Amino acid sequence: MQVVIISGLSGSGKSIALNVLEDAGYYCVDNLPAPLIVNLVDHSRGRQHRHVAVAIDMRSGESITMLPQQLETLNAQQIQTRFIFLNARNDILIQRFSETRRRHPLTAENITLEEAIQREREALATLAALGHHIDTSSLGPNALRLFIKDFIAECKTPSPLTLLFESFGYKHGIPLDADLVFDVRCIPNPHYDPKLRELTGIDPEVIGFLEALPEVSRMTQDIRCFLDTWLPVYMRDNRAYLTVAIGCTGGQHRSVYFAEKLALHFRDLTHVLVRHRSLTEYRNHYTRR
Q: Where does this protein hold ATP (predicted)?
């Protein structure tokens, strides 16, 4: 049996994620108190459900603090568990609640929406490190659906560590889900060439432009050397996921190129995933061992 647990901040997209899993054939339960998850798994096994997805968040109150203990119990029972934690910046969450006119679950008469979001963030801080962290700040619903579909596909590929290379644009902010961040804005920008402006770092013309620059080769080598040195350490630390974010100004040319280039190097070492946060089309690539 495989159990996917979804948690995160209110307004970060948990309902969208759960709907994607339901469409993929998972038996889904929303707003389950953490102490009941083992009972749910026992019930699901009796009903011969092979794939179960559960949303657990602050709506169930303080019982969510028992989630790590429940996960340990499931792992001891040889239940395959995957954890998704959805996050977003405070200003984005405030905007989403304003647009939908929903009440935050921690809203009270004596605190503001921003204060409620901050309280929830502090209460969930220890859960963010339990699994796959996704920053939905700059993701529309369709992009988030693609990310969750990618996560489902990754669940079918056993690997000691999933290495995610994520390109982004600094003008949109550094992704909250980044474990390591490399800044490639010092590389000449193809944006200033009119012939390359509308292209991306995946297009051959942009690749040719960048690979003609000596500093691109040196930057690639330096980042690759750092990861070659430290990736085994992260693996020994029993990390299931490591997100390496590569940033340029707009997230269209340089960061996209570097993310793709680095992914090619590491594909023989572990399971590799590539995401391009700032591209209009989210092109996701998997390279399996």
A: 8-15
- Predicted confidence band at 159 (pLDDT cuts at 50, 70, 90)? low
CATH architecture assignment, domain 2-154: 3-Layer(aba) Sandwich (3.40)
- State pTM to two decimals: 0.75
* 104 secondary structure, DSSP code: P
Q: Which position has the token pair 């792992």?
A: 75
Task: Tell me the H-state helices in the chain.
Answer: 14-23, 37-46, 67-76, 90-100, 113-124, 141-155, 204-211, 214-236, 254-266
Amino acid symbol at 43: H
Sheet with 2-8, side-by-side order of all strands: 27-29, 51-55, 2-8, 80-87, 132-135
Dist CA 50 CA 54 (whole Å): 13
* Radius of gyration of the CA atoms of the chain, in A: 20
Are 37 and 56 contacting, i.e. CB atoms less than 8 angstroms apart? yes
- Look up residue 34 and give its amino acid: A
Residues 6+ apart with CB under 8 A from 250: 169, 171, 191, 278
> Binding-site residues for GTP, please?
57-60
- Which residues are within 8 A (CB) of 211 and not within 5 positions of it... i.e. 6 or more apart? 217
CA quadruple 281, 86, 288, 159: dihedral, nearest 10: 180
pLDDT of residue 276: 93
Detail the residues annotated as belonging to a binding site: 8-15, 57-60
Annotated binding residues for ATP = 8-15
